[in-house]
Each structure stands twice: as structure tokens, then as C-alpha cells.
Amino acid sequence: MTTVIIGAGIIGTSTAYYHAQSQTSSIHLIESSPQLFASASGYAAGFLARDWFAPASSSLGRLSFDLHKKLAEEHKGYETWGYSRSTATSLAETIGGSEEEDWLGEGTSRAKAAKRIAENDDSRPVWLAPRHGKPDIIDKGVGTAQVDPFELCHFLLSECKSRGVILHQPATATGLTRDSTGALSCIRVQNTQTTEEYDIPCTRLVLAAGAWTSQVFQRLFPDSKLQIPVSSLAGHSLLLRSSHWPPRSSDALPPDINATHRGVNGSASGLKTQPPCHALFTSDPEHSYSPELFTRLPAGHIYIAGLNGPYPLPSLATERVIDPKAIAILKGTAQHLLGKDTFEVEREALCWRPVTGRGVPIVGPASNKWGEGEQGVWIAAGHGPWGISMSLGTGYVVAEMVEGRQTSADLKGLRL
User: In angstroms, what is the C-alpha Rg of the chain?
Assistant: First the structure.
């Protein structure tokens, strides 16, 4: 049995990572981009939450958050990909516990998904300009955390390769072959640099190509009646270096992953229980968007995003064209919140997140309730702003489905 996963972003590599732990058969990753993790997998915020999700995806969200913590404990996540507990805050915004699933499409804040607010305390971000008031606390870091998604992706891919997973990149899947019973037998791949074409065995196929998933499905199954309702939403971001972050007292001390679990990063017992990382959600009425800021350790970056727009999806993520007007707005927001002349911009970015009209991802077999679909094919896409947070859980349950096992999360509301 050979499994082929199209898309070597965080969903595809997570699937390969968990699948390789229990399988001795061949696993192949196919990635079309000449640059790895060139879209949301590498340029997203990396914010993790445990219970900020709609009912349909809540089970998967909890599983994934717990897997993120477990992976960080086992593989020095703080040092390797910046896994840290993060205090989630809201500045000058009333959060109500809405179950609205499409806040992203409406341009409002993901903090609307939070179900409760803790009482205020002294956990004010040290990098927030003094003229701003004290933010409301949404979560003190019990159910929220932070990673650097680019580094996490590289860790996952490295682990996959060490277990024998084969990466084809840059390459495109151009066709499929079925045997006499209708089952998948092989897939045709083209190296997009050399134009060489070759076949690899394929008895199980996972489509995890992010915002490009529907295009991949249509190319491989042109006669299928099934539609994959995954589209794209583009968003700009900045990666900043601030003179006020990180605080000097935390330069050499990794924050506890959990206030009740000490020493998981190799740190001594008794380190501070309040993590210095923050996520801050606010609003910018002038430009009609909801800025989001996230601090990262140990690299010491501040990430700002939230400005989304209808920028067309390119053939490859590397063909992005950054909009200078969007960047100027983000810089203005950063100056307002952090203070003028307190930061430097290290990176300007644009990425495309895969979204669905119902606001939850598609995770399950490529078939619908009317029996239309493709045998031996699974879809894992459409996570919107929660792709990093739900990545490990998605990879875990997709591996379970491919292997014919009971899934560890309830996926009934996530199928086609």
C-alpha cells in the first residue's frame, strides 16, 4: 500500500508525520511550489487555541491543541519552533461568546469566537504603547499558545524524511490510473523544473493542497460530479522586531508550557507561571479591519496581520505580488499600537488561506451524502485562520482514516 499526499504544507506534513509512525509502506509528498511553506503554512500567525471553535470543529480543535503541547514536550518545541503559552487579550473590544463561524469573511476579529473572558489582571503586553489602556484578558494561556509555523513545518518535514517519506518538489500530479476494479493504482507526476514525467504507485490519496485543493481535485478527477468547496482568502502580514520585546527578564528563560506542568522544555522547576507571550486582538475603524498581533519566543518577533482582501490566487504561492497599500496600513497600525520608532520591519508577506463557505474545514473522504465521490481519496483543507492550530489534529485523524482506524475526533460536521 502506498499513500500519496498532495500538498507539503503543514496539513500534508502533519498527515505524513503521523501516518509514518504506524506504517511501513511507502509515503510520498508532492509539492508544486519551488519554495517550501511559501503560503499560509510558513507565513501565518501560528496562534493556537483549544476551545475557540464552532461546534462542528470543536472536537478536532481540542485534539489538535493537546497534540501541539505533547509534541512540544517530546521534542523541545520551545527551542525548535517557539512553542509557548500565550495570553490572549482584547483591546477596546467587547467579546461576547458568539458562535459566528464566518468572522474571517466578515473582516471581524477571531476573538469573537472566544466563549469567555477572564478577569483583568496585570498581564499587560510590555510592547504595547503606554497611551493604550489595559486589554481585557480572554485566556491566560491555559487554552492558547503560540508557535512559529515555518519552523514547525521544517521540523515535521525533517521527521518525515527520517522515517522514509519521499518528497517530490517542485512537482505536480497530472493524472491517475485505476486498476480493473476501479481502485487507484498509480499517479503521474511531473517535475516542474526538468519537465520529466514519471509514475509512482498510489493506492491511497490525500489532497491537502491548501487554497489550491479544489484545483488539484478538478485536474485529477475532471469527470467527477463531486465539488470541493474550498476557495482562497488572501492576507498581508508584517514580522517586526521591537525594542521592547522580548522583556530582558525572559531572555534566557523559556516559559512554562503549562502552569501546572514544569520543566517540559528542560527548564528548572519553579520558573514563572505567567508566560510573557501575548496575542492581542483589536479594531481599526478607519481602515475597517481587525488587527491581530502575536509575540513569539525565543526569536523575539511580533507578528501583525488581519488585513485580508480579494487578491487572486496565483498558480504558485511564490508568484505573490505584495500590495504596498496594505503594507502601509499595517505599518500605520503597528506605529499606533507599539509606538513610533520602536520597531523595525523584518518581513513583509502575503499568503492565501483555504476557506469554506460554512467556516469549518473539510476533513474526510472525497464523497458526499449522495454517494458521489472518489474511492480511496481523502480531503483535508479549508481550515481558514485555524490551519496551524488544527494542523496536528487534522494530520492525526487523516492518518487514522487512511489506515482504516476509528478517528480520535468527531468529524461528522466536517465531511463533504
Answer: 21
In this structure, how many other beta carbons lie within 10 angstroms of the beta carbon of residue 383? 29
Q: DSSP assignment, residue 76?
A: T
What are the cell numbers at 255? 516559559
d(CA 28, CA 22): 15
Average pLDDT value for residue range 310-338: 96
CA separation for the pair 63, 245 (Å, rounded): 31
Distance CA 222, CA 220 (A): 6
How many Cα atoms are found within 13 Å in the side-chain-facing hemisphere of 145?
A: 31
CB 237 within 8 A of CB 304: yes
Q: What's the CA gap between 278 and 294, in Å, rounded?
A: 6
Backbone angles phi, psi at 55, to 5 degrees: -50, -40
Closest CA to 281 of 110, 141, 396: 110
Distance CA 216, CA 206 (A): 11
Q: Measuring CA to CA, which residue among 31, 85, 60, 72 is closest to residue 398?
A: 60
Q: For residue 51, give the nearest of 392, 386, 381, 413 by alpha carbon.
A: 386
Cell triple for 5: 499526499
Residues whose CB falls within 8 Å of the CB of residue 129, separated by 6 or more in sequence, listed in order: 336, 337, 338, 339, 342
SS3 16: helix
6-34 residues labelled b (16+ CB within 10 A) or e (exposed): bbbbbbbbbbbbbbbeebeebbbbbbbbe
CA distances from 56 to 100, 363, 412 (A): 12, 11, 7
Locate cell 517535475: which residue?
Answer: 191
360: which 3 cell numbers?
469549518
Residue 28 half-sphere exposure toward CB, CA atoms < 13 A:
22
Helices (H) and strands (E) in the chain, counts: 9, 19
Q: Is the pLDDT of residue 260 over 50?
A: no
Paired sense of beta strands 27-30 and 3-6, if any: parallel
CA distance 48 to 136: 18
For the chain, how far is it from start to end, CA to CA, in angstroms?
A: 25
pLDDT single digits (tens) 193-212: 999 999 999 999 999 999 99
Which grid cell sits at 72?
Answer: 512540544
- In which band, very low, low, confident or very high, does the pLDDT at 101 lie, cut at 50, 70 and 90? low
